[in-house]
Structure formats: C-alpha cells, structure tokens
Amino acid sequence: MWDNHRALGAVATCLNWLAVLALLFAGGFYLVHSPLFPVRKINIQGQMARVTPVQLRYIAENELSGTFFTVDIDQTRAAFGKLPWVREAQVRRRWPDQLDIMVLEHKALARWGENGLIGTDGQWFDAASDQSLPVLFGPQGSEGEMAQALARFSKALEPSGLKPLRLWMNERRAWRVELDNGVVLELGRGAVDERIHRFAQNWKTTLSDLPYQVDTVDLRYPNGYAVKMPDYKAPAAK
C-alpha cells in the first residue's frame, strides 16, 4: 500500500476532509455555546389575571440558562408551567437574542372538594382562589366528566332561576346536586339530564309554591318525583 501513490493520495484526501469536518464541528460547537449569543430579552405575553409579574420574573431569572442556541425550550416551558395558574407556556426563539413566551392561564370553573380547582377545560390544577365557585365531589379521574355535567346542569336549571352549588357523583355513578337555595336533588343514575330538566320545569310552577320548606326532591322516579319537607305535618286522622 505504501508504494501505491494513488491509494496514499486517497487516504490523504480523506484525512484532510475529516480534519475540515472536525474543524467545522469544533467551530460550530464554539459558536453555539459561545457567550457571543446570549439571550438578552425575554418577551412574555398573554392575558394574565392570576399570574403575577413577580412570579414570571423569578422564573426568568432563576430557571432559564444557556445561550440563544442552547437554551432548552422544553425545560423553559416546564419551568413556567410550574406556576399554579399557568395552564400552558408556549416558547420560541426569535433571532438574534430573544425568547418569546406566551402564557395561557387556567380559568377556574369549580373547586374539586378541598383539593385544588377544576378549569373550564375540565383539568384539575393545584391553586388557591377566593372566587365563589361550585364544589365538585367525585371519584379520581372523573374531573372532566363532572365539569361537563356541571355545565349541562347549569344550563338545564336556567328556567328555575337556580344554580348548582355542590355536585356529587359516587362510585356507582349516582348523582346528587345541592342548589344555591339549599334544595338537594337526588338524580340517581341513568337519565340524569332528563330528571334535572323535569325539576327545572316544575320548580316555578309547582314546587316553589308549596307552603312548606322543600328540603330534598327525589327525581329517581320514571314519571314524577318525591318531595321531602321537614316542617310538613300530615293531617291528624279523624
């Protein structure tokens, strides 16, 4: 081989190309990691009512690292996502030295028992709120289903002028609703939407005119309902 000038020339050419590639790689690595390309500006946008500028500044100053090329987009997104009211953070680079971050907040729909909140998207999140919100109680994993039911029940109750205050669903998928006037609706399983609609249609025309306090309305009957009135006394037998 050492006497083969053509083979030696090919090897030399290959080695030269490898050296050029190594040089280009080293130069590119240096440029990418060079302090010549810092992130000089972080532009944060979004309609934010709960996330504070102090929280955003803390994340920007303490959680982000790297140059314009090496800053970890996924890690940056996750860092802003740690804030309690942040539903999503969208992050992208803008040449030559800027990060654009769009922050999307949760919008609270209800409380989940005594632990966290449910957003309008049906997702649970851990945050505190001083809002007056309905309270949902249900099995783990039923947050989305209960959020949808709350929206349907609220709509169905509009003719009655009443609103859901607390909503329960047990492991057997039986439903119970407490209204903002203190009346409890026993809906059971099955056709719960039809039953709550039946109540709404009868509240102003019949139930609210009863001369007794209505405590519970049991709608688990095919064509009617039973009413519990604590202060009702049956007429004495003659």
Could you state the order of secondary-structure elements as H and E? HEHHEEEEEEHEEEHEE
Report the span from N to C terminus. 127 Å
Give the second-level CATH assignment, the architecture of the largest domain: 3-Layer(aba) Sandwich
Given the C-alpha coordinates, what overall shape results?
elongated
Helix content: 25-40%
Low-confidence parts: 22-34
The amount of beta strand, in percent, is 15-25%
CATH topology (fold) name of the largest domain: Rossmann fold
Overall mean pLDDT stands at 86
Count of distinct strands: 12
What integer value in Å does the Rg equal? 32 Å
Strand-pairing-aware structural class: alpha/beta
At the fourth CATH level, what is the homologous superfamily of the largest domain?
Cell division protein FtsQ/DivIB
How many structural domains are formed by the residues? 3
- Number of helical stretches of at least 4 residues: 5
Major sheet: order of its strands? Answer: 6-5-4-7-8-9-10-11-12
Give the CATH class of the largest domain: Alpha Beta
Q: For the report, how would you describe the main beta sheet?
A: 9 strands, mixed
Topology of helices and strands:
Elements: H1 5-33, E1 41-45, H2 53-62, H3 73-81, E2 86-94, E3 98-105, E4 108-112, E5 117-119, E6 124-125, E7 135-137, H4 143-156, E8 164-169, E9 175-179, E10 184-188, H5 192-203, E11 216-218, E12 226-228
Parallel strand pairs: 1-3, 4-7, 7-8, 10-11
Antiparallel strand pairs: 2-3, 4-5, 5-6, 8-9, 9-10, 11-12
Keyword list:
Rossmann fold; Ubiquitin-like (UB roll); 238 residues; alpha/beta; three-stranded mixed beta sheet; nine-stranded mixed beta sheet
